[in-house]
Design brief:
Length: 468
């Protein structure tokens, strides 16, 4: 599939650039859209809404099945583009691309149920109906760590509802997201129903202010979320913010330690540790800490760091030089302030932005990694006396996205899970973000929910019709 984007360079240089993080070489400069392109995209999206919202649901459902098939045919190409742009191993990129068709099929399979009128009996009324109706153009501001999944997580529920969607991708992953524009066209969606735009920060801000844009969703840092939330609030627009996370993995006295270590290490290392919703902090009780550490460190030590396009590589490069520099600074800060190194790691010599996975313990509040989100393959292990101490450490963070609790004593495991201040928690399993259930967090991890029925309700006009 060819990817076409007519864009111009900004005065300070290209704002969107594909740079292979495995080599440090620039693959393509995308530039930015000029103002006429930015304006035209919004005109198309707004015009498309009036027609798309009235397309019979049965036709929308068939369009979803068709695009699911088209995406499935292009999984290898989509995955290769992701790997070149942000560095995740090709197997992980393939798995990410494979989630997209299932998302379209989930909403197609359940659209009639999710959008069915809700009939309410009210005294004095002959007919009262609650209906979910679309609101208009939705702007999605999306990240780089899962560019295919994230873009469609914003687009799919809104499109089934009848909204139209404009997606602003991360600056390093324009190519991945632009590939969807062609797929939507091939699937027969109306022009403007879905579009990728390469906008500057100022142009994005203008979109948020424009009355034709009715809602905004963002996945990114808490700093970006604060800014976008403020802008959306100023213009009284609904907003969903899916932000950072420093999720806890609590390992209790009764845990199956080998299972806990296998899941915790896999979650910490997938995407090279560059995901908000994966447990970054292990909090193990003293009774099981030594055994857990033995398994956990062995998993980190067994990783194969290298070219993400080569079969067998389990850890590719970090997404950018700045990401690698930030992680190294956090690692060095912790070591300098007394952290114990269980498995040494850090920046690797040679081209690209590779970082050898590391494990640290004896962590204190004076260290950056105690409070900051460590976005890369550093395992953090805390020792605590019991379940209540684990809860205290787990909640001692500004974030509240998710978490996991391991304990064969289910009464105790549920006790801990209920006290974690998060949007979701798994007991003896990693919850993740299945398309069937709501996903989102508390505190600095954001507001609102994506996926499941909630993915539609966030940007629906919940409208009541009543007849006397």
């Amino acid at each position: 599939m060819s990817v076409q984007a007519s864009a111009s360079s900004s005065p300070a240089g290209p704002s969107y650039r594909t740079l292979n993080p495995a080599t440090g070489e620039v693959v393509r400069d995308w530039g930015v859209f000029d103002q006429s392109q930015v304006d035209a995209a919004l005109v198309r999206a707004h015009a498309a809404f009036e027609g798309w919202r009235r397309v019979p649901l049965a036709e929308r459902i068939q369009s979803f099945y068709k695009i699911a098939d088209l995406v499935e045919e292009r999984i290898p190409e989509l995955a290769g583009q992701v790997t070149i742009e942000m560095g995740k191993p090709i197997a992980e990129a393939t798995a990410e691309a494979g989630l997209v068709p299932s998302m379209f099929r989930y909403y197609a399979d359940r659209a009639e149920q999710l959008l069915a009128d809700e009939v309410v009996e009210l005294p004095g009324m002959s007919r009262t109906v609650i209906r979910r109706e679309p609101v208009g153009v939705v702007l999605g501001i999306q990240p780089w760590n899962a560019p295919l999944f994230q873009a469609m997580r914003a687009a799919v529920p809104n499109l089934m509802l009848g909204n139209t969607v404009i997606v602003k991708p991360a600056n390093i992953c324009a190519g991945s997201t632009l590939m969807f524009d062609e797929i939507f066209k091939l699937a027969g969606f109306p022009e403007g129903a879905y579009q990728t735009v390469l906008t500057t920060r100022e142009q994005t801000t203008a979109y948020i202010a424009d009355p034709r844009v009715r809602a905004v969703t963002l996945t990114g840092s808490d700093a970006a979320g604060s800014l976008v939330g403020e802008q959306a609030g100023k213009h009284i627009k609904p907003v969903v913010l899916e932000l950072g996370g420093s999720d806890a993995c609590v390992v209790l006295d009764s845990a199956d330690v080998a299972k806990a270590a296998a899941i915790a290490s896999a979650c910490r290392l997938i995407f090279g540790g560059q995901a908000c919703a994966l447990p970054k902090r292990v909090i193990a009780t003293e009774k099981v800490a030594d055994e857990f550490i033995e398994h956990y460190v062995a998993a980190f030590r067994a990783q194969v760091v290298g070219d993400p396009l080569v079969e067998g590589t389990t850890i590719g490069p970090l997404s950018s030089e700045s990401a690698a520099e930030t992680l190294q600074a956090q690692y060095d800060d912790a070591v300098a302030k007394g952290a114990t190194v269980l498995e040494p790691g850090g920046r690797m010599d040679g081209p690209g932005f590779f970082f050898k996975p590391a494990v640290l313990t004896d962590l204190t509040p004076e260290m950056r990694v105690y409070h900051e989100e460590a976005f890369g393959p550093i395992g953090l292990v805390f020792r605590v006396s019991d379940a209540d101490a684990a809860i205290q450490v787990a909640n001692d963070t500004k974030y509240g996205l998710g978490g996991v609790v391991f304990g064969e004593d289910l009464e105790e495991a549920r006790y801990v899970a209920e006290r974690l201040d998060t949007g979701g928690v798994g007991i003896n399993t990693f919850l993740g973000a299945p398309v069937e259930i709501p996903f989102g967090g508390t505190k600095a991890s954001g507001i609102g929910r994506e996926l499941g029925a909630s993915g539609m309700d966030q940007f629906a006009n919940i409208k009541t019709y009543a007849e006397g």
